[in-house]
Sequence to fold (401 residues):
Amino acid sequence: MTQAEIRPADSTPVAHWVHQLKRSALQDMLVLVSQPGVLSFALGLPAAELFPAEAYARAMAQVLTTDPRALQYGPPFQSLKTHITALMKQRGVLCSEAQVFLTSGAQQGLSLLVRLLLNPGGVVLTETLTYTGFQQVLEPFQPRVVTVPTDPATGMEIDQVEARLARGPRPALLYAMSDGHNPLGVSLSPGKRRQLVDLARRYQVPIIEDDPYGFLQYESSSTPPLRALDDQWVFYVGSFSKILAPALRVGWLIVPESLVPALETIKEASDINMAPLTQRAIVAYLDTGHLAGHLEKLRGEYRARRDAMLSALRQHFPPQASWHTPASGMFIWVELPEGMQAGKLLERAIETERIAFLPGQAFGMHDDAWARRCLRLNFSNSRPEQILEGIARLGRLLAEF
Ligand SMILES: Cc1ncc(COP(=O)(O)O)c(C=O)c1O
Fold:
């Protein structure tokens, strides 16, 4: 579909911002990679064969047969909040159930927080390359977006954040991904986490910490999220999408308790409430205590897939290409040699090899020359042998370039 096709007919008087809507590269890709025979490194999909489908089916059946409230309208389920506080404690975050706010996935969490914090035309501080779902959430507000670059090895350039904040004006919010950054794969170094939180406090800027990948850690040690350092200026966004299944559409926020009533009303306008059936089924699943083992399995499997991709890249990509080892998440960010274009490589890869990935520019807040020769590769959704084969084929194409 071309950009023009997304525009409503001229005769329909839609809001001004709708005229500037762009098609989402990710949605287009979802259609493409659903075609049979396409090997996809394109999207942030978890491995479907690892979903705990049987255990979840048992939990669902139990809820449906024993709990008549599961199919009724209902308020957020307290027991789910209890489980989430326990989960967060494992990541080094202490919070009360009153600070946990349930959402329909991290995506809705982002949307609610932006609606809570941002005025139309307000200022937002974020990275030059960032999660496209966050960019979409901003669109109705037509904000002034101020960006800072990200070091692929250590994360967001905090010195530049400081320079921006010192220069003013004060942003309504700062958006950050501390672990398994999408698209760069990087996790913020401990020193940068402290610096960033100090700046948020000093300049009184709320940080939206988007952390759907934080439970997927592949190294022996990991650093607690920003929320562990501050409970006033860091608004945490979590999700079951990458650790249980995205189809559940359940995530959570951890916010100061005083903001919960406003968030409740904003959410009510959007979808009334969380799906009671899903909340109760997740609780029934979590009550069995299976999650810890499931997370171990996911980490082990995704680590193996990450390592298979790193080893294939070393073997098949040109020596001038570079990348870093992601400690968390689902993506490896690859920088191609000068003069190469990831978009052109993608066209050829799909046409001749039926392999998909996303070119770096898909994540640019603005057009970015460096991102044009970078690619984001997902490693969670293909088995190691598929990864080895796919990267070898991409490497052959690159050699022809
Ligand atoms: C950085 C980031 N934030 C949020 C989301 C949305 O997650 P959810 O499925 O929980 O809405 C994604 C999904 O890929 C993501 O990568």
Q: What stands out?
A: The mean pLDDT is 94.
